[in-house]
Amino acid sequence: MSEYLDWRRDDFPYLTEVPTRWGDNDMLGHLNNVVYNRMIETIVVRFTMGPLRIDWQTDPCYPIVVESLCRFHRSLSFPETVTAGLRAGRLGGTSVTYEIALFGEDNEAPASTGHFVHVFVDRDGHRSMQIPADIRARIEQHGIKA
């Protein structure tokens, strides 16, 4: 697990800020666990709609989540603005695993790390299919080593 704690902001080619809200805190004064998972989902959705240019409503194929993981290393709390980092960690024929880290303000060590696995499926049959070449190329620009 220590390898995850070695991750730094500069290790992630895609970064986005996610503000926290007062209601995100639990009774102990730190972010509720589900908020971390929502932040992981947020960065993946922003990445797929942004750099990957995926339109879930009209594209002939699109990604669906098959696995997600969140590891907690230290607490975050409102009113921090969290920086979420994403990079492609593994790229298969039909799937991609994104490595994700959540960083608190002014902290280079991640407060949380995890991954998110997408499998690409065809719109009509909902069967896994090869990642289209244009999307694969855009994924490769974000940290994958073929």
What's the gist of this structure?
This protein has 146 residues and is of the alpha+beta class. The protein has helices spanning 2-5, 33-49, 133-140; strands at 14-19, 61-72, 81-91, 95-103, 112-122.
SSE class = alpha+beta
Order of helices and strands: HEHEEEEH
The average pLDDT score comes to 92
Largest sheet: 5 strands, antiparallel
Helix content: 10-25%
Write the layout of secondary structure elements.
Layout: H1 2-5, E1 14-19, H2 33-49, E2 61-72, E3 81-91, E4 95-103, E5 112-122, H3 133-140
Antiparallel strand pairs: 1-3, 2-5, 3-4, 4-5
Task: Tell me what the structure shows.
By secondary structure, the protein is of the alpha+beta class. It contains 3 helices and 5 strands, in the order αβαββββα. The protein has helices at residues 2-5, 33-49, 133-140, and strands at 14-19, 61-72, 81-91, 95-103, 112-122. It has a 5-stranded antiparallel β-sheet. A hairpin with a 3-residue loop joins β3 (81-91) and β4. The longest helix has 17 residues, at 33-49. The two termini are 24 Å apart. The model has no long low-confidence stretch (mean pLDDT 92).
